[in-house]
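User: Here's a chain of 276 residues. Predict its fold as tokens.
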Amino acid sequence: MERVGEGTWFALDRKLFTSSLWFDSPWKLKIFIYLVGNANHDTGHFMGIEILRGELIRSYRTIADECGYMIGYRLKKPSFDTVRRICEALTKEQRIVQRTVHCGTLFKIINYDKLQPNQESRTVQRTQEGPFKGAAVTVHNKNDKNVNNEKNKDIGGEEKKRRHQLPSDFILSEKLIQFAKEHGVNGDRIKSVFDHFCEHHQSRGNVMQRWDLAFRTWIRNDENFKNKRSVADKKSGVQRTMEIFARREHERNQSQAEGGCNSDANDKLLPNRTDG
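Assistant: Prediction complete.
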């Protein structure tokens, strides 16, 4: 049966390009857009469960399968654990709410009505008189221009800024320092990470719209790299220990073999004793 709203469109706010989602993992952005785009536009039912507007039912494995893409003849898709972690992060960021049901997971998009408003910007009317009686006429909403102007404004009410290089007066604010501490970067290391961030982007001439969000992403990546290095160090430590045990075992076996050979040689060199 065709799902309600199949083949229709859904809206994305331009503020998405300056949000933390845009600077985070590509899987996270794709999964969030997938959830918003597949959420019910109207209330419906599935397997005895009422699904309200802005809700949908999916399993983590289904999301992983439907968010994959092809590289040649190979399908690249996120793992089950990756989807689970991303959904938990979106829940923590208060973008979605999820709960387990008997046929999967019920996702609810927070502020779905703001993301997908019902208000139409244009209507179609029929002329009632004149030579074009009964013809369809598109009537534009007079507030279209004002609405578009509002969409082009930033969160702070200023006109959306273009991408620009790292400004010379970009400093560590208290909010950025607090954000770094919450992600495991403390003490003098905050200044070291910040200097590395500035030198990296200045040397490459990179441009951004929101440099504070770019630094937040840098901090998150630093935390991920640190966790990966910690796991790699643990693996290398275990590997070194195994190599030491193997080397000692080899030396012990070699020593025993050499001892046996010397014993046989000594037996051959000893003269045969005769009685009397």
